[in-house]
Amino acid sequence: MLRRFLLMKAFPRKVDCGLLALRLTAAIPLFLKHGTEKLFRFHHMLTFFPNPLHIGVVPSLLFATLSDGSCTLLIILGLAASWAALVCFINIFVALVFVHHFVIFGPQGDHGELMLLYLAAMVTLLLAGAGRYSIDRFMDLPDQTSAAIS
Question: Model-level pTM?
Fold first, then answer.
């Protein structure tokens, strides 16, 4: 019993459960904090939003809104999650490099640590996919069952 406790055998070891937990714990806060802000205050944000790649404030804000507002919802649902994670990764990476200048610790690095966690979550979802508990998986089922029959 002690061995079972120490090895945490009481908890299910399912990769799909882990991917679901990762999707939800990474995408829900990102959507609630940054996605809703960009979706509902778009015109207000135009006055102060950065233009890190010098493509214009409107395209920069549109891409960030796509990332934080739409792609996070896709990740939560598990619909085109790998592509959505790639878009989110690009957006967060550009913000970390060109807006926050890799400042992770210290007084100016108040977002750096969190951005690294978001980047790690997005890379994991990009590489591993959404897992079994996703819309992507339900859309894949007919192909897998027909392959298993043959």
Answer: 0.84
